[in-house]
Structures are given as structure tokens and as C-alpha cells.
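Task: sequence design from structure.
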């Protein structure tokens, strides 16, 4: 339990680093929360500067990946040979090793959830952050790479077809836990799948204003700006 609490706290703090806000403040002298949608994420940053938007996307994804990768390495590293050497179900210790691995992946998924929560509700910005798409992308790319690849393809196709990033994000995020289940990238741990689904639901919920505009037909098309 102590490891889970510590993982959650450190992942939240890492996720709460507001890269979009920092980059726009540093390089343009502006508060990104005062422009566009008021969001600190890559999409809103890109409305002011394509370069800074891409940088925000990369950094937000990296902090998600760092939280999960570090947690995964620490959890599996201590027990690594017990998990990876026993590769056949015929080994009498296989079930024990499998349980160890499932617990490690559960802790890694908790890291993913809390790094996303940190991005959404950063303590440094009075808990008003981004929507968690890029951070979730980085976090789950470590935990479920094949599922994330499918989600990215769906996202890109939806953007090309409809030119609305919010719609693409909602569709891709909604499909992610289903794809992870179909690929068994939840590592046969129902709690890990539940955490993935919870993270997806939170990201979609953060798009509530976008959903309202999509329904009413007032959601603007996405345009990049140079600079």
C-alpha cells in the first residue's frame, strides 16, 4: 500500500508540471489560459504557436511516459528474473510469478492514472489544467503500445476526416480500453483494465464543453498558426 501511495503522489506531481503554460509564458510572454479555449494543452498552445504546440505535446507525453516507465522498471526490476525467467505455465512457480507481474503492471497503471490527474488538476495552477490526451498518450504508450498505436491511427484519421481535434481525441480515447482488452495489453489483470477505463472516462469527461459544442455544431475547426 505504501508503494501505491508513493507512486500515486510522485506521478501526480510529475503530471502537474504545466509545460504548455511554462513554454508560452517563457517564449511569448503570454498566459495561454487567456487565449483560445484557455486550456494549457498542446492544441490550445498550437493556436498561438505551432512550434510551441508541438513542444508541449512532446513534453506532456514524455512526462506521462516517464512516470509509467520509471514505476514499471522499479516494480519489475526488483522481481525481474522471477517474472521473466519463468516463461512456461508448466513451471510450478508460474502462477506466483504471474501474480507478481500483474501487481507490477497494476502499479504502473496507477502511475498512468495519477500522472494524467496531475496534468488535469495541477496544484501549481489552482487545479485548472489540461485534458490529459498527450499525457495519457505517453503514459499508456509504455504500458500498452499496440493499443496506443491503434488509437493514434484512429485519432489521425478522424482529424483528417472532420478537422476537429476534440472529436478525434474523444473517439480515440474511448476506443483505447476496448483495444487494450482485445490485445490483452492489460496483462490479464482486471484492475489494470479498470484503471485504463477510468483514465479514458476522465479524459472524455474533461472534454464536456467540446462535446456540447460538437452536439450544437459550434465546435470550431482546428487551424495551426506559424511561430
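Answer:
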Amino acid at each position: 500500500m505504501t508503494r501505491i501511495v508513493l507512486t500515486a503522489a510522485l506521478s501526480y506531481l510529475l503530471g502537474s508540471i504545466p509545460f504548455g503554460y511554462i513554454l508560452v509564458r517563457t517564449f511569448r510572454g503570454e498566459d495561454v489560459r487567456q487565449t483560445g479555449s484557455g486550456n494549457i494543452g498542446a492544441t490550445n498552445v498550437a493556436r498561438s504557436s505551432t512550434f510551441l504546440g508541438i513542444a508541449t505535446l512532446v513534453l506532456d507525453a514524455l512526462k506521462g511516459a516517464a512516470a509509467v516507465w520509471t514505476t514499471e522498471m522499479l516494480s519489475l526490476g526488483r522481481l525481474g528474473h522471477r517474472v521473466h525467467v519463468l516463461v512456461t505455465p508448466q513451471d510450478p512457480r508460474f502462477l506466483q510469478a504471474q501474480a507478481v507481474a500483474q501487481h507490477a503492471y497494476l502499479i504502473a497503471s496507477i502511475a498512468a492514472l495519477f500522472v494524467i490527474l496531475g496534468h488535469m488538476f495541477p496544484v501549481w495552477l489552482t487545479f485548472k489544467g489540461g485534458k490529459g490526451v498527450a499525457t495519457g498518450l505517453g503514459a499508456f504508450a509504455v504500458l500498452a503500445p499496440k493499443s496506443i498505436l491503434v488509437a493514434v491511427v484512429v485519432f489521425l484519421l478522424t482529424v483528417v476526416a472532420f478537422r476537429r481535434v476534440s472529436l478525434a481525441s474523444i473517439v480515440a480515447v474511448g476506443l483505447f480500453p476496448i483495444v487494450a482488452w482485445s490485445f490483452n495489453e492489460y496483462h490479464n489483470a482486471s484492475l489494470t483494465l479498470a484503471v485504463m477505463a477510468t483514465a479514458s472516462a476522465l479524459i472524455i469527461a474533461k472534454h464536456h464543453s467540446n462535446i456540447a459544442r460538437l452536439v450544437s455544431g459550434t465546435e470550431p475547426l482546428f487551424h495551426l498558426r506559424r511561430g
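Residues 85 and 97 are 9 Å apart (CA to CA).
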